[in-house]
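Annex B. Sample input.
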Amino acid sequence: MIQRETVKMSNSIQVESPLHHAQLEQLIGQSSAGGIVLHEHKLLGHLNLRGNAADAEFLAGVKEALGVALPITPCSSAKSDLAQIMWLAPDEWLIIVASGSEVEIEQKLRTYLTGHFAVSDISGAQTLLELSGKDVIGLMKKSTGYDLHLDSFPVGKVVGTTFAKTGAHILRVSEDRFQLIVRRSFSDYVWLWIQHGSQEYGLTIV
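Annex B, continued. Sample output.
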């Protein structure tokens, strides 16, 4: 996916990453021995989709627009070249797309979908942080009460749960890699928590 820390909009409004003040790019490469690896996927497009999962036309329209079937099993996810889709509720999904493509993808959805549905651009309201590394399970156990065993939390599963003292949607990308969707207003708190929780392991920014 295309990632940029600062995007210059056509109306001259400068859009910044929720963690731009942390200057993470200046920390990249300063340490390569950390057991925790953090990467912020900056300024990706975030679209919230609401609709009826029992409506065959709705499902067909999403597949036509995004190139992948909508995940309708609770806590599941799906991915195509255009988008990553996370199940949030029986009638709600989060769609992550490349930076700058959110308007085009939203329009595609509105073109292919009919009937009762809603799609909203919430890109400015949240961000995506990726945690990995040999000690990431240790950090995750400190941060959430959700059972991290692969039988309970397999690859591809997404859950809405607590992370430290805030809420997050957590997607397991691989056995030792997690993506966190956190609200913009709590991103600084999560960043500080990750720094504190990683002290015994070491933290690498990439």
